[in-house]
């Protein structure tokens, strides 16, 4: 049986560990940040403590009780939070990392609730390393490419289409698709571009170059 003092300690440790990861997510302007992670881990820790105590209570009475059943429901039920953290902006999806951090922190809460403090702390430190340092290391040693969808609205001129394509190819050779559409009166032009750029290539610089072209009216990036 877990005493009330131990329960309080486990909840406190869980809140601190959840706060560490939540603060990191808050710094990255994610919808599920400090409070969400703290409350999640506190709830998961409490669920695990309750499972352990119920196992002791019903075990003493001779009834079969599986203490892992309540914990399993926490893991499966965390999906609604993960779904809320995943957001789509046009062709870009954000929040997948936050969703996985929520799921993992729920398990950390269960771990702390079961009394494995050191394991919970080590798991949190590994998560913090993964969230904050892996990207820095990857950007330093690995060339990472990101897809960009660009919509250009301009006055219709045949030479302008060639100029737009030439400007884009100067910035990146990885042009995935280039689609052009004219209006009925042949006065306006819409160009849809899908391209991949590495982390060391500047998208802002490309947009500035495109805006400098005579006839370009509007540019949207997704």
What does this structure look like?
This protein is an alpha+beta fold. It has 2 domains: 4-139, no CATH class; 145-221, Alpha-Beta Plaits, CATH 3.30.70.260. Helix content is 60%, strand content 19%. It has 9 helices and 6 strands; from the N terminus they run H-H-H-H-E-E-H-H-H-E-H-E-E-H-E. The strands form 2 sheets. Strands 4-5-3-6 form a 4-stranded antiparallel beta sheet, covered by helices on one side. The protein has a two-stranded antiparallel ribbon with strand order 1-2. Helix 1 (4-27) runs antiparallel to helix 5 (96-113), helix 2 packs parallel to helix 5 (96-113) and helix 5 runs antiparallel to helix 6. The protein is elongated, with a radius of gyration of 26 Å. The N and C termini lie far apart (54 Å). The relative contact order is 0.12. The mean pLDDT is 83.
